[in-house]
Amino acid sequence: MKKYLLTLIIASLFYTKSEACAWADPDYDYFNLFTQSIIKDKSYLPFLHNYSERFYTDFKRSQIPDENIESWRKYFNNQLTYSETNYLVYAMTMNDLNNLKKGSPNNQLLKKVGSGFYQKYREGIDYLIEAKYLEPYMKINYVETADSFYYRENENDKNATNLDYKKTVSALTSLYNAAKNPEIKQRYGYQLVRFNHYTRNFDTALQAFKMYVQSLSLRGAAYYMALDQLAGAQRGLQMGEDANWNFFQVFKNSKSRKESAFISMKLSDTASFNNILKRAGNNDEKNMAYFLLGYEDFTNPIPMMEKMYDIDPDSEILKVMAVRSINELERSYLPTYYYDSKDSDQSSKIGADNNSNKIETKEAKPKELSFWQKIVMFFKNLFSSKSDKEKDGNKNDQSDDELLENPNRIPFYTKNQSYYYDDKQKDFLDDLEQFTDKTKEKSKDEYWQIASAYLKFLKKDYKASTEILEEIKTSNPEYLEEIKRMKVLNDIVSQPKITAEFEDHLIKDYADYFVEKKIEKDSIDEGGYDYYGSAPSTASFLKDVLANRYFLQGEDGKSFLMNNKLSDLQYNPNSTLVKSVENFYRKTNKTQFEQQIIAKNMDDVGNIDAFFNVIYGDRAMRTADFEKAKSYYQKAQNFSGIPRENYETYNPKTDKYEKLVYTGENYDGYNNIPDLVFGHNVWESFGSSDVESMVAEGYTAFPYIKTNMNKLELADALIQLKKAGNGKDQKSSQANQLIGNVLYNTSILGYYRELFVMDVDNSNGGKYDFWSTGKKNPYQYYYKNFTSTTYIEPDNFDLAINYYKKAMNISTDKEQKARILFQMASAEQGKYYQYESKNQANINYDDPQWSQKNDAYQKQLNDIKNQKYRTYFAQLKSQYSDTEAARTLLGSCSYFDYFMKR
Questions:
Q1: Contact predicate 195/138, CB 8 Å
Q2: DSSP 27
Q3: Would you call the peptide bond into 411 cis, given omega within 30 degrees of 0 as the criterion?
Q4: I need a labelling partner for 824 at 20 to 30 A (CA). Which of 47, 54, 723, 895 fits?
Q5: Which residues have a Cβ under 8 Å from the Cβ of 174 and sit 6 or more positions away?
Q6: CA distances for 409 relative to 192, 335, 381, 434, 658, angstroms
Q7: Are 643 and 606 contacting, i.e. CB atoms less than 8 angstroms apart?
Q8: What DSSP state is assigned to residue 211?
Q9: Per residue in 833-861, is it b (16+ CB within 10 Å) or e — as a string?
């Protein structure tokens, strides 16, 4: 399906650099090299940085400790493990506990603890029985209104109002009074507050909290569970400030209820935060309030972190803010793809208002060179020119300093243009580095040293980063894993040039980082399709780094194969890149790294030599070098077909998408080319069959034009036509016309446009877009997302026009001349489209004068089109309007009809 996806992808990239698509996951846009979850207080895991969900979810819920379970473990004197306690409290049935109470337990866990367990913890077990009875009803009654959004027909309709209010309150009050253990007593108080909250007896809930919970002066798990319910009741009474304050207390003191408490706080404005700050009675509460404010407004976290630092430089929540800040910077310094291209910052020649989106790049700071290095550079510059240095072939001659100082050397800061960013985004790396350096001197936690080393890595100060890492002493396994990964990153990214010796080092010491991980089953549907692909990882980042390094060094073939398969060349068969890939393929002394990591992407294309030769032959055909094309096609006769193993195309006969199978009759990239390629189209319809869209010119004078040809036979026929076209008779004229037809018909505008661009049919795709044909190489960093960017040398419509001119000069047949003129006018239209694509308006849609500017731009284009690109239409109108050919064209070409009536 690549071809069909390609059109959509390229179209989206043409209009914007963002990935604002319904299926895009913004958290797949960076590599997460600094593992956020290494924070020690795991209760804050939901508040780590992400965009695809409201809260961070890439962790196991079991990592967050539940203070309720911890409290019950303590109550049971640690006789049960955490998981056993969790099972007893949350999962065990009421019947199992009743059987234990009767002295006949059936549950395996209860058998394990023995019959004396109930007698020892009678009050606690009785409470759990009562709690499990109440639990199915413990939710607020939903009141349906005309504006209700959710469809609730299949939901469990049990709620607190289904219980008898007086009996339930009486029973809970009686149990409260009977309980001797203060903690169990408070748990019954919690149930009373919750029950009144869920039955909307909000005032009574407030009274119950004061009487049955607060009066016991315990501040354990049950207290904050009850406080959570109290705040809910206060919300119901429109006591917003009090509700926020109590939810804030739950957030601050509970481990497992932080996420729900944060949602319930409804901190939608500055006033809400200020009210909490005013009520903060100690530094811990102020610190937490600043954390919440920084969490909500994250455009520049440093000012809020400074306030938190002044209170407690060693607080856990300050580390959470720091790790969120680092993650934010990562998304700009380490995106999974750098969208910029060589000419992305060039203004349009027509109608430009210089407001086109530009990716901001922070160029590497020049390093101070030694006296000897300056002498070497002087002589190097003396005997080389700027143009020499810019040639790809001399990229390998760059010095280490030149390579290290290349502004296109990743990673570097890029202003992320995806939809989840706004104009407030800024690069606060310097500020965060200064803050981290200051904090690591005050805090005893090695986290700040790791963070400091990582920020040095982002700033490309790899030596300082490594020195910090070497000095860290820690036994924390998560810290140790992060340190290990960062040492690898520094080692690889700091290497000026990827040499054979360094490749040996990579395969020897870091092979695991280049082994592709298996896709998790939960990301694959039942049909075996992977919707999301593998998540960006350290390994994928290093792959991008090496692809970038090879690209900057001039080793394009290796750069390409780091991110792509050999078969991907079919989607953008640029002959220069293909040659570089072929050079790598033919390299005899490949290093072990090249063999195992790069060459493995030389996937199945059939006969590889034939594959390359078809691409070269196709390019020669597009440049009208038929003799060279023939020489390549002679070496491509073992071509097994364009490799489209997973390709599907719509079959109108079956109304289904079917996999492509080369039957020996359909075009496969080399065979089965019809003689209609020498004809002309009667109407422009790529979706119609060739016998509907195309008409033969008559080939009786040229017996070497076969009904069905392969590319070798086609090239040979064109060579013979070229010879025949050197005469001065009508046959010579027709020969030149037929050559012009082939060149036009296989151009981006022709019905057989797929023949020389490694495509299987003429259905739409990125290969047939005009807008990027002016780029010699649209890639600036590496060849990632290769199939999403057009990278094919543009058509030269003058080649077809020149053959048509030769035919016109020789011909004495006015009807033939009229037909030839129309073909020349069609080719000239292609030249206009190429001009238009290179001169986009780039008018900002936010411009209040957008409509006027756009109208002026279109008028200017129309004037240029009529003045420079309607030469042959004008000649056809003025000299051949009386021909039968012209009258026929009026009925089949709407634009010609419009032009003739002007």
A1: yes
A2: G
A3: yes
A4: 723
A5: none
A6: 64, 13, 22, 24, 43
A7: yes
A8: I
A9: bbbbbbbbbbbeeeeeeeeebeeebeeeb
So what's the pLDDT on residue 446?
96
DSSP state of 28: G
Whether 809 contacts 792, CB under 8 Å: no
pLDDT at 531: 43
- Residue matched to tokens 């032009």: 899
Q: How many CA atoms lie within 13 A of 77 on its CB side?
A: 4
d(CA 173, CA 471): 61
* Token pair in block for residue 277: 């700050």
Measured distance CA(620)–CA(626) in Å, rounded = 7
Q: Phi, psi at residue 658, to the nearest 5°?
A: -125, 150
Instruction: Quote the pLDDT of residue 847.
Output: 87
Question: 657: which strand partners?
Answer: 650
Do residues 659 and 647 touch, judged by C-beta distance below 8 A?
yes
Are 411 and 358 in contact by the 8 Å Cβ rule? The answer is no
Distance CA 817, CA 815 (A): 5
Q: What angle do CA 382, 387, 390 make, to 5 degrees?
A: 110
643 Cβ neighbours under 8 A, 6+ residues apart: 567, 570, 603, 604, 605, 606, 611
Helices (H), 494-590: 500-509, 538-552, 556-563, 575-586
Using CA atoms, how far apart are residues 712 and 721, in angstroms rounded to an integer? 14
How many helices (H) and strands (E) the chain has is answered by: 40, 6
Structural domain spans, the chain: 366-401, 556-634, 670-901
Q: The tokens 């076969």 sit on which residue?
A: 706
User: How is residue 84 written in tokens?
Assistant: 């056993």
- pLDDT at residue 416 in the model: 62
Give residue 676's pLDDT. Answer: 97
Q: What is the CA radius of gyration of the chain?
A: 37
Q: What is the pLDDT of residue 122?
A: 96
Residues of the chain with pLDDT under 50: 1-2, 4-22, 146-154, 342-349, 351-393, 419, 521-532
The residue assigned the tokens 């037809």 is 741
* Cα separation, 163 vs 106, whole angstroms: 29
- Return d(Cα 672, Cα 641) in angstroms, integer: 11
In tens, the pLDDT along 470-516 reads 999 999 999 999 999 999 999 999 999 999 999 999 999 999 898 76
Note the pLDDT tens digit of each residue in 600-623. 999 999 999 999 999 999 999 999
List the structure tokens of 509: 């010491």
Do residues 813 and 883 touch, judged by C-beta distance below 8 A? no
Q: Cα–Cα distance between 692 and 679 in angstroms, integer?
A: 12
- Residue appearing with tokens 């001197």: 441
Burial 392-412 (b: 16+ CB within 10 A, else e): eeebeebeebbbbbbebbbbb
Ordered DSSP codes for 826-875? HHHHHHHHHHHHHS-----TT-TTHHHHHHHHHHHHHHHHHHHS-HHHHH
Strand 656-659 to 680-681 pairing? unpaired
Tokens 């299949």 -> residue: 154
Please report the sign of the dihedral spanned by the C-alpha atoms of residue 677, residue 682, residue 683, residue 688: negative
Beta bridge partners of 695: 680
Burial (CB count within 10 angstroms: exposed 0-12, middle 13-18, buried 19+), residue 891: exposed
Place of tokens 């002044």: 310
80 φ, ψ to 5°? -110, 150
> 694-695 and 673-674: which strand pairing?
unpaired
> Please, are residues 548 and 336 in contact by the beta-carbon 8 Å criterion?
no
Q: Token pair 């005469």 is at which residue?
A: 727
